[in-house]
Amino acid sequence: MTYNEWFEKQGKLHADVMKKLVDKSVDEVIEYFRFENMVKNEPDFCPLYKENKKCHDYEELNCYLCACPNFRFKDEGFEVTPEGKTLYSTCGINSKDGSQYIGDDYIHQNCSGCIVPHREKYIKKHFSRNWFEVMNKVRCDKGN
Known about the structure:
The protein is an alpha+beta fold. It is 29% helix and 13% strand. The protein is built from five helices and six strands; from the N terminus they run αααββββββαα. The chain is elongated, with a radius of gyration of 16 Å.
């Protein structure tokens, strides 16, 4: 699955959950997206939920921004390094907790050590009922 395919699929899943929460306050929506609640009530939102497994080792994980608004991707790649590796994704804030996964001919951003978008304070600061509005900078190949 490409980044774009995943992004579109996740946006639809997010919108489907939000349709159930139209009468909820911002705080109630954010609470609903807590990992424990999502595993119980939205098992198809994330493949890891079926194993009751978190994508980040963080006790208070919130899944509202399951994709980080600071994650940048381009399915065809941003550039080819002098070593011949294609850079497909990066961190827009160069998080000290992020890293790169480097393969034989590719480089991908590894966000597993970063919890920035999974903290409720961060979510509240960037909250929109439309996930795509929050994520508007992610799709570098779409000019956003």
